[in-house]
Amino acid sequence: MKTNDFIVIKAKENGVNVIGLTRGTETRFHHSEKLDKGEVMIAQFTDHTSAIKIRGKALIQTSHGEMDTEE
């Protein structure tokens, strides 16, 4: 069930956590990355990833708009 949906995450501070969550009957953490200030990660939803959790100050861009975790 791969889609073209992706998000861009730009860290606004050191130590921003990006956590991928699984699909299925039980949602679990399956991957995590730590970004430092200024680093950018592009993530895509896949057969295994149904959600992405972001901890820390970051700018997030999606096809639905732009969000800032500080707001």
TrEMBL record:
Oligomer of 11 identical subunits arranged in doughnut-like structure. Keywords: RNA-binding, Transcription, Transcription regulation. The gene is mtrB. This is Transcription attenuation protein MtrB. Pfam families: TrpBP (PF02081). GO terms for biological process: DNA-templated transcription termination; regulation of DNA-templated transcription. It comes from Bacillus taeanensis. It comes from the Bacteria. GO terms for molecular function: RNA binding. The keyword RNA-binding applies.
